[in-house]
Amino acid sequence: MDVDSEPLNSEENVKDCLMTGVEENVNCTCDCGGSSSKYVVVTADDIINQTFETSDAAYHLYVRYARCVGFGVCKGDTARGKDGTQRRRRFFCNKEGKRADKYISNLNRKREHKALTRTGCEAMLAVYFDTKTSAWRVKKLVKKHNHDLVPQCLAHLIPNHRGMNEA
Fold first, then answer.
1. Spatial distance between the Cα atoms of 162 and 63, rounded to a whole number of angstroms
2. End-to-end C-alpha distance for the chain, whole angstroms
3. pLDDT tens-digit profile of 149-165?
4. Where in this chain does the record put each FAR1 domain (predicted)?
5. Rounded to two decimals, what is the model's pTM?
């Protein structure tokens, strides 16, 4: 893969590309009777071969992919170099991890436990800063989820995907 042949994607370019890309009519896959809606479909192949100017641009593309697939995203840990700049960043499915046992087994609780929402899902995107090309590259993309994914007609209800457009 030749890095010079691929354009670097800034955060703005990623948003523009996703909003003006190929729109598809997607029929609802659940029994809710929802109508089809038009939106840009982002696949895992679109993410794997990308380079980015910033880690935020990678995050925005992964959030867009997550909406197409049917899950939410949370920002994970970051590794910094000796000079203090970011070298690695990870983004996870919002059902990654589990509640600590000390909170589950505590018998002196004054309130009921909240519902368990995390299932230990392993889906993630890892990006790293390539110093040779001065760009962020995708290191790892795990697509496997251990939970049910949200249908397309309900993806807008996931906290990551809520919000008002600028219109």
1. 11
2. 39
3. 888 778 888 777 887 77
4. 61-151
5. 0.71
Angle at 39 between CA 136 and CA 24, to 5 degrees: 110
CA dist., res. 26 & res. 153, Å (int): 9
- Asked if residue 9 lies in contact with residue 57, where contact means CB atoms within 8 angstroms, the answer is yes
Whole-number Cα distances in Å, 122 to 125, 137, 143? 10, 20, 8
Amino acid at 3: V
| The residue to which tokens 């299932």 are assigned | 119
The token duo for 152 is 């397309």
CA distance 130 to 55: 12
Residue 79 in 3-state DSSP? strand
Total residues belonging to the chain? 167
Q: How far is CA 86 from the centre of its chain?
A: 19
